[in-house]
Write a structure and sequence with these properties.
The complex is a heterodimer.
Chain A (H helix, E strand, L loop, with lengths): L7 H7 L3 H30 L9 H8 L2 H29 L3 H27 L8
Chain B lengths: L4 H29 L5 H11 L2 H29 L7 H28 L4
The chains are: A mainly alpha, B mainly alpha.
Bound molecules: protoporphyrin IX containing FE (HEM).
Chain lengths: ~130, ~120
C-alpha cells in the first residue's frame, strides 16, 4: 500500500489486487455516506442535545428503544469501524518497515477493534433497556 | 500527488484526524455501550465526564472529524471528476470556507453546553 492513487484510473492501474481496488472504492463510498451519518450524529447529539445536562441513562433508554436510531447508530458504527480500520492499515503499512512488527501490530489492532465493535453491537441489538421507575 | 504546500498539509492533517477519530470512536463505543451495566454505573460515568476537560476534548474531536469529512470530500472529488485535480487549491480553500460556516456555529454551541452551567 505504498501507492497513493489520486484518480480512479490510477487506482485501477496501481492496485496490487482486485481486493485492494475494492478497499480503495470502499473508502470513498463509505466516506460519502459517513459525511451524512457523522454530521447528523453531531447535529443531533452535540448541537440539539445539551450533552452536559440532558444526556443521562433515560436518554440512552429512549435511543435504545427506537429501531430507527438503533439502525442509524449501527450503520454509523460499522461504516466508521471498517473505514477507520482500513485507513489505519494503510498507515501501518506506510510506517512500519519490519514485516514481523507490522503483522503483530495488525493482530493487536484488529483484535481490539473487533472486541469493541462486538461490545457495541451487543449493546445495540442484544440488550433490553428498561426505563428506571 | 500530495507534493508540497497545501497538499502536504492536507495529507498529514487527514491522517492525524483519521487516527484520532478512530481512537475516540473506540472509547466512545465502550463508554456508551457501558449503559448495559445499568443506571447507577452509567449516570456516575457521565457525571465523572461532565467537566471542561472532557468537554473540550469533545469539541476537539468534533473539530477533527469535520476537517476529515470535508477534506475527504475534496479527495473524492479529485479522484472521480475530470476537473478536481486542476482546481485542487481552490477546493482546499473551499474546504476551509465550509469548515468555518459549519464548524463555528457548531463549536460555539458545544462550548456553550460545556461552560454554560445551570439553567
Ligand atoms: C465523515 C466522513 C468521512 C469522509 C468523507 C472520509 C474520507 C476519507 C478518504 C477519502 C480517505 C482516503 C482513503 C485513501 O487514501 O484511499 C480517508 C482515509 C482515512 N479515514 Fe476517513 N472519512 C470520513 C470519516 C472517517 C471516520 C469517522 C474515521 C475514523 C473512524 C476515519 C478514518 C480514516 C483513516 C484512519 C484514514 C486513513 C488516512 C490515510 O491513509 O492517510 N474517516 N477518509
Amino acid at each position: 500500500m505504498a501507492w497513493r492513487a489520486r484518480r480512479y484510473e490510477e487506482a485501477k492501474r496501481l492496485a496490487a489486487s482486485n481486493l485492494e481496488l475494492a478497499w480503495w472504492i470502499f473508502m470513498r463510498v463509505s466516506g460519502v455516506l459517513l459525511v451524512f451519518l457523522v454530521l447528523g450524529h453531531l447535529y443531533t447529539r452535540a448541537v440539539l442535545l445539551d450533552f452536559h445536562r440532558d444526556l443521562d441513562y433515560d436518554y440512552m433508554v429512549r435511543v435504545m428503544n427506537s429501531a430507527t436510531w438503533k439502525f442509524y447508530n449501527w450503520l454509523l458504527l460499522f461504516l466508521s469501524v471498517l473505514h477507520g480500520t482500513n485507513g489505519l492499515r494503510y498507515i501501518i503499512d506506510d510506517h512500519i518497515a519490519s514485516g514481523r512488527a507490522r503483522a503483530w501490530v495488525k493482530v493487536v489492532v484488529y483484535t481490539i477493534v473487533f472486541l469493541v465493535t462486538a461490545f457495541g453491537t451487543l449493546a445495540l441489538w442484544g440488550w433490553n433497556y428498561q426505563p428506571v421507575e | 500527488m500530495y507534493r508540497g504546500r497545501e497538499g502536504q498539509w492536507a495529507f498529514y492533517l487527514h491522517r492525524i484526524s483519521g487516527v484520532a477519530v478512530l481512537l475516540f470512536l473506540m472509547l466512545h463505543v465502550l463508554e456508551m455501550s457501558s449503559s448495559m451495566f445499568g443506571p447507577e454505573w452509567f449516570n456516575a460515568l457521565l457525571a465523572f465526564e461532565r467537566n471542561p476537560v472532557f468537554g473540550l476534548g469533545l469539541v476537539l474531536v468534533a473539530a477533527l472529524v469535520l476537517y476529515h469529512a470535508l477534506n475527504g470530500l475534496r479527495i473524492i472529488l479529485m479522484d472521480f471528476t475530470s476537473w478536481g485535480v486542476r482546481y485542487q487549491r481552490q477546493l482546499w480553500y473551499g474546504v476551509w470556507v465550509l469548515y468555518v460556516l459549519i464548524g463555528f456555529p457548531m463549536f460555539f454551541t458545544m462550548l456553550g453546553y460545556v461552560f454554560g452551567g445551570g439553567e
